[in-house]
């Protein structure tokens, strides 16, 4: 075993010897000789081999190692000059430079290198440079490594394998023991056990084990010596502990032994303390009993002595003294009592008067405030309606102006196109004219040729005489044909004239009939559509003018086409004639002689035809004063007749004239047909508006019917008020009878009172005072009865006012407010009547006590106070099923809720629970709770679709749960109670488990309650929020290419936005009427608004025809109606408005401009509640209704999608309409005292007794 000090000394000496390589003339032999001189026989780690003189041996940890010295110094020197190393290190060849880098920094896996500094001050080297050897470099790197290792704190983790196969849940104990033994863990444990693992400082030992020290040991001043003495005394084996300078070291188990001694000592001390305390208590009890026994003995002996000593006279005197003392003390006490009583009654009278005046002042202020609120709310509603109407009118005007501007722009574009077509046709006509001029020049040349041919014809005159005869025959045939043509022309003209007359008559008749129909239609709809007619007429005039201009331009275009075709036909005919001239050249010479006669004859015929045409045109122009026809016939066609004298031109002119007239008639007919279509469309639109108005009237009638039902219900409830009046009158009669009986009894008792005047003076004064006290509340009761009768008359007047025929839509809201006010007043009146009943009962009790006092002859004290109830309901065990049946299973909330406090069945159940708790009967209480919970479950199961029943029992379950918490006796719930309510807490049982069961039942009822509301409102969400047009005229147009959706419902029964609001109001009023907690009402409304927003948004995603700017305005308007409803119901804090945020952002996205990049950024910033998929879906589904709106370009969609890619949201398109918010049941203590709760007779619970 090599020792570390020897190894360290050898390392230092070897280090000094290794520096031998730095000498300039050192050799390996000299260096080896120096090693031999320094270490042989001087250090056990260095040895010289026996056989070799060029090597040496060094003893390492494992074994001896032989080192040879050949080339040792050369290798150690590394004699490469620094300049050469620098040149190679600066080489541009990367691999070469990398080999000669000085102190290359290895790449750290953690990104930063650890720089270590020596704690010793670095000695500044001198300017002389030394070459570094390999050994010095090795030493420096080794020293750096040691510094790094010394600067760190090593940690060791020993990993033990449970088995060699690394299988789970396999534990090889032998293999683990081998590993622990090999790692040295067991040895470490053994060493730790053999050493002193536990240690205490002297101060800690003194403070911990001072209880084991004796008084003598504690008197020593040196605590160190005290600890040594105590340890010598307690632990006999001195090898089990050792004393250090500041601590005491213990072997394993010694500290536990000391702790055991300490606990034994403490236990003995406790026993001694208990012994002395118990002895003191027993001694105290014995002394108290001893004093009591001595006192009893003393009194008994004294009494015995008095009985033996006293005589009869002494007893009489003592009894007389006692009687005198009694009367004297009675007089003093009575006088003091009367003085206090008079003062108390005076204070009470003044106090009650002050309270009554304050109450009257408060009622008067509330009445005036209600009047002010009525007028203020009416003014606000009027102003809100005017703002909405102004907003709607502005939107309508802007939309109509934009439509007209768009149509004007379209007409201007069409006009420009027609003008361009006309210019092109004029150019074509100019080309045709040039062609005609060319043909005329050709005809001139043909005439010159003809002149030449005439000369030649003279030569052939003789030869053509025979042909002349033939031509004369042919001429006669032509004359016959001409006459036939003339007759045919006359017949055709007459037929055309007749047809034209018939057409004109028919057209005028049709126009007259259409005018009559239009007059009838206008008269029939004049009253309903007077406001719309002006706007429609103005628009029709503009459209008619534009249509006429368009038709005129179309006619001109057709005529120009006809003229161009005629010109083309004439050109073709002239070309054919030019071709035939070559064939008739020979015959021209023969016909020259007849030319003049024929021309004269044709001219005459031409004049006649011109005159006939002029007459026809005059007749036509006179019969139809149309500038267009006159210009076309007189300028164009007549010029053709003047230019050529051919008969067929006249025929063609007539045909053209008839065509123009037919086209004109056709255009008039088309115009009239379009007007008829427009009028039919107008009639259809007006009929739709009439249907819509009828539907609104039906809705108003439905609302009025519901109000009438409510009024009848209220009147039926008000019918109970005369019964209360009758009861009050009967009680008054009873009071009068009692007063008469009192008066008679007082007269009968006068004689007795005179005989016993000395004894009953004080009693008579007391009776008078009590009579005053009864008269004061009687006067107060009469005043309150008069006030109650006034309120009853007001309610009757209000109900009579409501029973009058209801006015249409303008008074619907007022009726609803009046109905709600009447219900509230009825509740107040019923509560007041209950209070009056209690006061009357108290007065009856007082009257009875007065009658009893008058009948007595001796001093009788009146018990004015009434019986105080304990807030319990007594019932028998066999009546439990009857209680559950009548109170839960058979109870109908409709008609009963109005006449009772909120949660009355829950309070009755809790009062029965209190009775079972007061009896300390666990079985009875358990049976009652189980029966009540099962009964509620059964009611919910049977009426799982009845909203009113679910709302009623959800409210009562929550009230029952709050009662169990309020009177549980727990401090966190008792702090909300009054001191009197804290007396009613449960005393014997803890019902926290039943509270959890009731909470689960309430959650189940709430879920079913929400499902019923969703099922009722879901069918009307899409028709009311999306399809119904609350802003008339905004989205009346349908986008082109979309058909109207078919519906199984009739249009008259379609749901509107008012249907949605009416359904919400029904839910809200039912929940409030059943006494549901306001926080639960807010949670239910929030769930409903989430459903409305989700269903509307999902339908918007699925219907492409709803994605337009107009529909966005419609949705925004409907959302404002919902927000206004929340504001009217004071539900702004329910967070329901936030659930509509996705729908509101979708409506805004439909209305916003979607063109530029700034619009895309605005959409990205504003639409935070919508996911990226939903925004892209809306943009792709956006469909313009008309040309005023523009489609969303794909480039804009890509811009928005690029901005939305940075969002991390769900890729889900449709919202989950079945999502339910978590319900939270608030703790709301009941303000009603259990002692004041009375059971209505309608509950049929007469077997319950109030305690």
UniProtKB/TrEMBL annotation:
Residues 930-1206 form the Dilute domain. GO terms for biological process: actin filament organization. Keywords: Actin-binding, ATP-binding, Coiled coil, Motor protein, Myosin, Nucleotide-binding, Repeat. It comes from the Eukaryota. Residues 1-263 form the Myosin motor domain. Residues 142-164 are annotated as: Actin-binding. Belongs to the TRAFAC class myosin-kinesin ATPase superfamily. Myosin family. This is Myosin VC.
């Amino acid at each position: 075993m090599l020792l570390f000090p020897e190894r360290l000394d050898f390392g230092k000496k070897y280090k000094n010897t290794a520096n031998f390589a730095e000498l300039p003339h050192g050799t390996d032999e000299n260096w080896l000789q120096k090693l031999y001189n320094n270490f042989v026989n001087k250090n056990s780690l260095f040895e010289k081999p026996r056989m070799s003189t060029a090597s040496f041996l060094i003893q390492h940890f494992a074994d001896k190692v032989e080192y040879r010295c050949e080339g040792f110094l050369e290798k150690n020197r590394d004699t490469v000059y620094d300049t050469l190393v620098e040149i190679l290190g600066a080489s541009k060849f990367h691999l070469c430079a990398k080999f000669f880098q000085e102190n290359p920094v290895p790449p750290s896996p953690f990104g930063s290198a650890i720089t270590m500094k020596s704690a010793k001050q670095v000695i500044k080297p001198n300017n002389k440079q030394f070459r570094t050897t390999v050994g010095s470099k090795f030493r420096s790197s080794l020293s750096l490594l040691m510094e790094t290792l010394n600067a760190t704190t090593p940690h060791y983790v020993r990993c033990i394998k449970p088995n060699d196969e690394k299988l789970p849940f396999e534990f090889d104990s032998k293999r683990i023991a081998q590993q622990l033994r090999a790692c040295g863990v067991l040895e470490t444990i053994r060493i730790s056990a053999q050493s002193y693992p536990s240690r205490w400082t002297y101060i800690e030992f003194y403070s911990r084990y001072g209880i084991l020290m004796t008084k003598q040991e504690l008197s020593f001043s040196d605590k160190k010596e005290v600890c040594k003495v105590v340890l010598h005394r307690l632990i006999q084996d001195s090898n089990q502990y050792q004393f250090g300078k500041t601590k005491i070291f213990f072997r394993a188990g010694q500290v536990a032994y000391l702790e055991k001694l300490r606990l034994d000592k403490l236990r003995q001390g406790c026993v001694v303390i208990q012994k002395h305390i118990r002895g003191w208590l027993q001694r105290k009890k014995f002394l108290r009993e001893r004093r009591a026994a001595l006192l009893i003995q003393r009194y008994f002996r004294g009494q015995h002595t008095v009985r033996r000593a006293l005589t009869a006279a002494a007893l009489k005197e003592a009894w007389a003294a006692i009687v005198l003392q009694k009367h004297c003390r009675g007089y003093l006490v009575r006088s003091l009592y009367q003085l206090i009583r008079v003062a108390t009654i005076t204070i009470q009278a003044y106090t009650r008067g002050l309270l009554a005046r304050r109450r009257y002042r408060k009622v008067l202020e509330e009445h005036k405030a209600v009047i002010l609120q009525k007028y203020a709310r009416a003014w606000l509603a009027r102003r809100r309606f005017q703002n909405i109407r102004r907003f709607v009118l502005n939107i309508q005007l802007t939309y109509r102006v934009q439509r007209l501007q768009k149509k004007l722009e379209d007409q201007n574009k069409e006009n420009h196109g027609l003008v361009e077509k006309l210019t092109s046709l004029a150019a074509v006509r100019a080309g045709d004219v040039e062609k005609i001029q060319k043909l005329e020049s050709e005809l001139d040349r043909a005439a010159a040729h003809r002149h030449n041919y005439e000369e030649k014809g003279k030569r052939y005159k003789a030869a053509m005489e025979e042909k002349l005869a033939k031509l004369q025959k042919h001429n006669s045939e032509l004359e016959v044909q001409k006459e036939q043509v003339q007759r045919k022309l006359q017949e055709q003209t007459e037929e055309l004239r007749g047809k034209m007359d018939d057409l004109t008559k028919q057209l005028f008749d049709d126009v007259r009939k259409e005018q009559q129909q239009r007059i009838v239609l206008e008269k029939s709809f004049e009253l309903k559509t007077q406001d719309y007619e002006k706007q429609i007429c103005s628009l029709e005039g503009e459209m008619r003018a534009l249509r006429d201009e368009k038709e005129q331009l179309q006619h001109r275009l057709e005529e120009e086409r006809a003229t161009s075709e005629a010109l083309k036909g004439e050109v073709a005919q002239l070309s054919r004639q030019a071709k035939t001239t070559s064939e008739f050249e020979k015959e021209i010479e023969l016909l020259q002689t007849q030319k003049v006669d024929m021309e004269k004859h044709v001219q005459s015929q031409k004049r006649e035809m011109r005159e006939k045409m002029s007459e026809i045109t005059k007749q036509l122009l006179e019969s139809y004063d149309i500038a267009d026809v006159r210009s076309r016939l007189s300028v164009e066609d007549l010029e053709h007749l003047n230019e050529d004298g051919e008969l067929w031109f006249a025929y063609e002119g007539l045909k053209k004239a008839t065509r123009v007239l037919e086209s004109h008639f056709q255009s008039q007919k088309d115009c009239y047909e379009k007007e008829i279509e427009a009028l039919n469309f107008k009639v259809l639109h007006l009929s739709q508006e009439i249907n819509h108005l009828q539907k609104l009237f039906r809705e108003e009638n439905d609302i009025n019917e519901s109000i009438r039902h409510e009024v009848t219900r209220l009147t039926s409830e008000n019918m109970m008020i005369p019964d209360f009046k009758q009861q009050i009158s009967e009680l008054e009669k009873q009071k009068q009878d009692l007063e008469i009986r009192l008066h008679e009894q007082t007269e009968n008792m006068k004689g007795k009172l005179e005989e016993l005047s000395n004894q009953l003076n004080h009693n008579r004064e007391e009776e008078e005072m009590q009579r005053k006290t009864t008269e004061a509340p009687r006067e107060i009761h009469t005043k309150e009865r008069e006030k109650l009768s006034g309120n009853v008359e007001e309610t009757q007047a209000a109900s009579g006012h409501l029973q009058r025929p209801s006015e249409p839509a303008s008074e619907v809201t007022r009726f609803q407010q009046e109905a709600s006010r009447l219900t509230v007043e009825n509740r107040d009146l019923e509560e007041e009547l209950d209070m009056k009943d209690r006061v009357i009962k108290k007065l009856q009790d007082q009257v009875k006590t007065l009658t009893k006092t008058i009948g007595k002859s001796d001093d009788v004290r009146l018990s004015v106070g009434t019986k105080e109830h304990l807030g319990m309901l007594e019932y028998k065990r066999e009546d439990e099923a009857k209680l559950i049946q009548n109170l839960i299973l058979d109870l109908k909330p409709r008609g009963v809720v109005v006449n009772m406090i909120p949660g009355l069945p829950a309070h009755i159940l809790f009062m029965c629970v209190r009775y079972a708790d007061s009896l300390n009967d666990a079985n009875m209480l358990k049976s009652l709770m189980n029966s009540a919970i099962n009964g509620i479950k059964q009611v919910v199961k049977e009426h799982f679709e009845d909203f009113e029943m679910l709302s009623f029992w959800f409210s009562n379950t929550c009230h029952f749960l709050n009662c169990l918490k309020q009177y549980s006796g727990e401090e966190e719930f008792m702090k909300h109670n009054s001191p009197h309510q804290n007396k009613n807490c449960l005393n014997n049982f803890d019902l926290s488990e039943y509270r959890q069961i009731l909470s689960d039942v309430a959650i189940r009822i709430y879920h079913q309650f929400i499902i019923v509301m969703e099922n009722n409102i879901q069918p009307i969400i899409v028709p009311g929020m999306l399809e119904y047009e609350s802003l008339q005229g905004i989205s009346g147009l349908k986008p082109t290419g979309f058909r109207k959706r078919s519906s199984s419902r009739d249009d008259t029964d379609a749901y509107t936005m008012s249907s949605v609001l009416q359904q919400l109001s029904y839910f809200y009023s039912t929940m409030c009427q059943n006494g549901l907690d306001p926080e639960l009402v807010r949670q239910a409304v929030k769930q409903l608004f989430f459903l409305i927003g989700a269903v509307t948004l999902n339908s918007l995603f699925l219907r492409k025809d709803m994605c337009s700017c107009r529909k966005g305005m419609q949705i925004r308007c409907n959302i404002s109606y919902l927000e206004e409803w929340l504001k009217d119901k004071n539900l702004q804090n329910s967070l329901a408005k936030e659930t509509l945020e996705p729908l509101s952002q979708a409506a805004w996205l439909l209305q916003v401009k979607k063109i530029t990049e700034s619009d895309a950024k605005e959409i990205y910033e504003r639409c935070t509640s919508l996911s990226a998929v939903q925004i892209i879906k809306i943009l792709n589904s956006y469909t313009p209704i008309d040309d005023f709106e523009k489609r969303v370009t794909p480039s804009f969609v890509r811009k928005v999608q690029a901005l939305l890619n940075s969002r991390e949201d769900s890729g889900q398109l449709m919202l989950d309409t079945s999502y339910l918010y978590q319900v939270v049941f608030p703790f709301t203590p009941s303000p009603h005292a259990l002692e004041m709760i009375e059971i209505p007779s309608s509950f049929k619970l007469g077997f319950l007794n109030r305690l």
